[in-house]
């Protein structure tokens, strides 16, 4: 397994002087392909900052960020933008689907923006929706879908194409427990296919789906542990694997 994401002593400082905030303080994190890592911590502890830096949406103030073995700060702006489009998928709490596009159009959009022909992008998007059990919903607009379905479309959009890193910031925050659990199952299965996943959550039950939990406090990683036995371990026992 190769490390798809590696943070080495990464710090992020917002502002300067009396308003300075050290949102992230010398954070080290390695996530392998196939691994799902949950990030937990109080509000303001730096969870979203960690994700935006991992996804190169923001630059670190110091330290090194490597995606699929390549140091992000050494890339040209163009290469970094291409990596963001092709290698990294994001899922947000509020889904961020475009309301004027159907489910399949939403999923196809990042491919089309990346220069894939419309017909091919649509086929790829349909396949991704199919894998998430959403074929029958492909032609619907976001406001014709349930919250759980919308989030599954957002996940399809985040993993479509050849992504290596999936970053999810409280992806189940707007969902009830049944839909939240379905989304977790999906994230878990997606990462099993070799994608590295990092997910922020407040919910210890949902975090127990991850391989590992990273705890943040005041920008510090204070602990990294295997989660307590949760639903995932029950599944493993049931299937005898
Ligand atoms: P969390 O996601 O754990 O709630 P964040 O990563 O959003 O925490 O924020 C960590 C700290 O950095 C907080 O004190 C927050 O106010 C600050 N912060 C986050 N983004 C910015 C920004 N763009 N400008 C200034 N301060 C910020
Ligand atoms: Mg946050």
Q: Output the radius of gyration.
A: 18 Å
Bound molecules: adenosine-5'-diphosphate, magnesium ion
Helical residues, percent = 25-40%
CATH superfamily: P-loop containing nucleotide triphosphate hydrolases
- Please give the domain count: 1
Q: What CATH architecture label applies?
A: 3-Layer(aba) Sandwich
CATH topology: Rossmann fold
CATH uppermost class? Alpha Beta
The largest pleated sheet is described as:
6 strands, mixed
- In whole angstroms, the N-to-C terminal distance is 20 Å
Binned strand content = 25-35%
**Class computed from helices, strands and strand pairing:** alpha/beta
Biggest sheet, strands in spatial order?
Answer: 6-7-8-3-9-10
H/E series: EEEHEEHEHHHEHEHEEH
Task: Count every beta strand, where a strand is a DSSP E run of 2 or more residues.
Answer: 10
Q: Could you tell me the mean pLDDT? A: 89
State the shape. Answer: globular
Give a written overview of the molecule.
With 241 residues, the protein is an alpha/beta fold. The protein has one domain: 3-Layer(aba) Sandwich (Rossmann fold). It is built from 8 helices and 10 strands. A 6-stranded mixed beta sheet has the order 6-7-8-3-9-10, with helices on both faces. The chain is globular and about 50 Å long. The protein binds adenosine-5'-diphosphate and magnesium ion. Adenosine-5'-diphosphate binds next to strand 2 and helix 1.
């Amino acid at each position: 397994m190769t490390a798809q994401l590696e943070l080495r002593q990464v710090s992020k400082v917002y502002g300067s002087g009396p308003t300075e905030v050290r949102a992230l303080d010398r954070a080290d994190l390695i996530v392998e392909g196939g691994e799902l890592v949950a990030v937990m911590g109080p509000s303001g502890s730096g969870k979203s900052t960690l994700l935006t830096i991992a996804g190169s949406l923001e630059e670190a103030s110091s330290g090194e960020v490597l995606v699929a073995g390549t140091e992000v700060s050494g890339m040209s702006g163009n290469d970094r933008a291409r990596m963001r489009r092709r290698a990294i998928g994001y899922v947000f709490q509020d889904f961020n689907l475009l309301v004027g596009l159907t489910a399949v159009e939403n999923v196809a959009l990042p491919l089309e923006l990346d220069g894939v022909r419309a017909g091919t992008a649509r086929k790829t998007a349909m396949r991704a929706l199919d894998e998430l059990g959403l074929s029958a919903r492909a032609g619907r607009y976001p406001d014709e879908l349930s919250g759980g379905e919308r989030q599954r479309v957002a996940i399809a959009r985040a993993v479509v194409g050849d992504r290596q890193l999936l970053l999810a910031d409280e992806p189940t925050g707007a969902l009830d427990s049944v839909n939240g659990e379905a989304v977790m199952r999906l994230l878990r299965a997606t990462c099993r296919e070799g994608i590295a996943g990092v997910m922020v959550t407040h919910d210890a039950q949902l975090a127990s789906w991850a391989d590992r939990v990273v705890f943040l406090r005041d920008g510090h990683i204070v602990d990294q542990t295997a989660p307590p036995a949760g639903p995932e371990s029950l599944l493993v026992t049931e299937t005898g694997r």
